[in-house]
Amino acid sequence: DTGVSQDPRHKITKRGQNVTFRCDPISEHNRLYWYRQTLGQGPEFLTYFQNEAQLEKSRLLSDRFSAERPKGSFSTLEIQRTEQGDSAMYLCASSGGLASYNEQFFGPGTRLTVL
Amino acid sequence: DAKTTQPPSMDCAEGRAANLPCNHSTISGNEYVYWYRQIHSQGPQYIIHGLKNNETNEMASLIITEDRKSSTLILPHATLRDTAVYYCIVRAPNAGGTSYGKLTFGQGTILTVHP
Q1: Residues of chain B with C-beta less than 8 angstroms from the C-beta of A101
Q2: Are B3 and B33 in contact (CB under 8 A)?
């Protein structure tokens, strides 16, 4: 399967714990996005990488959140001191190529439950 | 990015055409119209996009009005597997500006296809 993959698919944690999610984009894609989706809402943009550079961060991304893409390939999203409000689906998407209208390919998401 | 307005829900009989409307009256001249859908518990899936002209691919057709203030996504022969949330998104191209291609999702239209 050459699509976007995310790991783990599900994560249950206790409030105050740290969690880390991984995203493996489509191999030739240089753009990588993280989104968060809560129940009944559309996905909300969190952050964007072009290769290894993090070029945009949403105000939703508090200082407890950090994202990296160290070699311009896979990316990690870490949440420190989790809160119940962090419970959501975390989606990763990638896109690539030079055309100005590249569609984004989404992974299956990581569902986080904070108890 | 321009705001979009979609009906919260629609029904369609299996085998019939599903016509999903979207209003985007504040669209700018360089903004594209994108449609994505999200089947339950999966990541969003790209369907189609357009700028001015009507577009068709293997999944759907996109009709954009001449003034570009509204569009309609057409699924010509809906199946039960087309039951999903459909998102209409208006977005500036990747090149230039500071949007970096991020997608701004609304709440979408829940399409239910009935047998």
Answers
A1: 32, 49, 51, 93-94
A2: no
Query: Which residues of chain B are within 8 Å of residue A103 when distances are taken between CB atoms?
Result: 34, 46, 49
Query: CA–CA separation, A65 vs B90, rounded Å?
Result: 28
Q: Are the CB atoms for A25 and A4 separated by under 8 Å?
A: yes
How high is the pLDDT of residue A19? 98
Which residues does chain B have within 8 Å of residue A43's beta carbon, measured at their own beta carbons?
A: 44, 103, 105
B17-26 pLDDT tens trace: 999 999 999 9
Instruction: Give chain A's mean pLDDT.
Output: 92
Candidates A89, A100, A111, partner chain B, best to mutate (most B CBs within 10 A): A100
Terminal CA-to-CA distance of chain B, rounded, Å?
Answer: 37
Strands A10-13 and A110-114, by their bridges, are parallel
Tokens of A31: 């753009």
